[in-house]
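For the sake of transparency, this paper describes our internal protein records without simplification. An entry from our holdings is shown next, in its original layout:
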Amino acid sequence: METAMTNTRSKIIAATLAVATLAGTFAATSGEAQARPRFGTGLGIGLAVGALAGATIATSPVYVDRDCRYVRRYNRWGEPRLIKVCDDY
């Protein structure tokens, strides 16, 4: 069972966090709105990330499955199972 002091302490902590959140929100949004085109930085970052992603994809190994077929094999107890067998070039 909660005591009155624990309940009061949790309410004070919750109120303090709420006030800190609101103060941070007002401080972050109190600046002037400046509408000017700024796409140079975003464009540069986008191109850099795209180039890195393209280089990573281009250097990844490619596995080609050629002439694959399923062959019936038997285990040591004589039970059949299918195994995929591929001819590599």
